[in-house]
């Protein structure tokens, strides 16, 4: 029976998702078989993953090839995020992206370094013309690495359309071996208003998940009444990798009719922030597990398809209903969950009494909260829904709800610090106070007259903190007065314990030198092959500044010939 059901829904799924993308246009960007550590639209912190993470055998320096002919249309080098990234635009309108690179191919590397020296900046973004850096399919364009926010050596690979929307590269014919069923880790049921109940409760319920031998699941029968919804925690794995990845499609069926679908085929970058409204955000921030809600509430995500009544279920008294969840990977391997629901109004429990705070956030209105020297400003549409917020000030500490409500955008927290002396004021910043010890963590803070203004997207506890400790600078591979003629690289370690590094600058004999900053290793590295250091006697000067303005100057003498 399961086989017949799977074939029916699989046929329906592929008919409804007809693939119009070219299948033989793009080739493997590496010279090794494609094995993934990350899949498209995988759930990440505050965003969906926008490409494929291709394993590079735990190595850096593998040749990265152009997937198709075109031209280098963008090059971006940054300390964080994509690190060293290359964008190639193709005649058919698509753009491929190659990120976390170690370095670029020689011609591209020379081009980018020329501009870095002109701007005296390691971080840079360039948009070459179509004639500047043309490439043919399978041309060497870069070497794989671990730059930026990468957690280990790999190649991040994307395909984007003309509107810069990332598309699942699997839709273009890339073949990844996968015969493994998705794994359902947990299922939850949600009463969606004050008059709805699940198993006598008006609060979220974790359901008893029962695995079956064929890879499907069932749930211990539940009793419910009113308007309810469900959520699922699920992952997928490919055959050749142990990584836990995202799934490709989730559908739900109520009494045989499809009423909800999430299709992870394409999205726009300006909507990726809405991931926090897709998941049960409170569950994630408190338990670090992502439950995908199988109903839609005030969420503009384009990933939603085939939704009836926003995926809400209306359960009436003395009814019997069957709800099914189908989770699929790209290869069509699927896992089903079957839930039998008995409508039972008689067994409802006592609703949980809520104690509203005096402060009501209206999602469609501007809200200002102020007490003493602290104020918080929320623009329109900062949040998805109206809610009563906890707001309390004790001294310099701001208690601004718990971080259980997702925000669409950042908001301002302002402190009047006019009572502080000029010197003390210069070292102040606004911090998130986290953990049992209320450890301060820097949030972006600007100074305007006698005010500090911090911007954040997360609720929680905040306070003023002081950073008086200067960054540290120490030579890594040389000593004062040393001859280093045989060295290719000059390495310097920089660290800042509290607010972090804001900027750095290095010169040799008064001339700016390019130093690559690897924040994961706290390392600055200069490549002598740049040809900038040509003198025998060299005076090195490095200035490092943290985020409140503390700076350290390091000077040393070295020799080369």
Question: Layout of SSEs?
Answer:
Blueprint: H1 2-16, E1 36-38, E2 43-44, E3 47-48, E4 52-55, E5 63-65, E6 70-77, E7 84-89, E8 95-99, E9 101-104, H2 106-119, E10 124-126, E11 134-135, E12 140-144, E13 154-160, E14 166-167, E15 183-191, E16 197-198, E17 205-206, E18 209-211, E19 217-219, E20 222-235, E21 249-254, E22 257-263, H3 275-278, H4 281-287, E23 292-293, E24 304-305, E25 313-315, E26 320-328, E27 334-343, E28 359-361, E29 367-371, E30 374-378, E31 387-389, E32 391-394, E33 397-400, E34 411-416, H5 422-426, E35 428-434, E36 439-442, E37 445-448, E38 451-456, E39 460-466, E40 472-475, E41 482-483, E42 489-495, E43 501-508, E44 511-512, E45 516-518, E46 523-527, E47 537-546, E48 551-559
Parallel strand pairs: 19-27, 20-27, 41-48
Antiparallel strand pairs: 1-4, 2-3, 4-13, 5-12, 6-7, 6-10, 6-11, 7-8, 8-13, 9-12, 13-14, 15-17, 15-20, 16-20, 18-19, 20-23, 20-25, 21-22, 21-26, 22-24, 26-27, 28-31, 29-30, 30-34, 32-33, 33-39, 34-38, 35-36, 35-39, 37-38, 40-42, 42-46, 43-44, 43-47, 45-46, 47-48
What can be said about this structure in brief?
The protein is mainly beta. A hairpin with a 2-residue loop joins strand 29 (367-371) and strand 30 (374-378). The protein starts with a helix and ends with a strand.
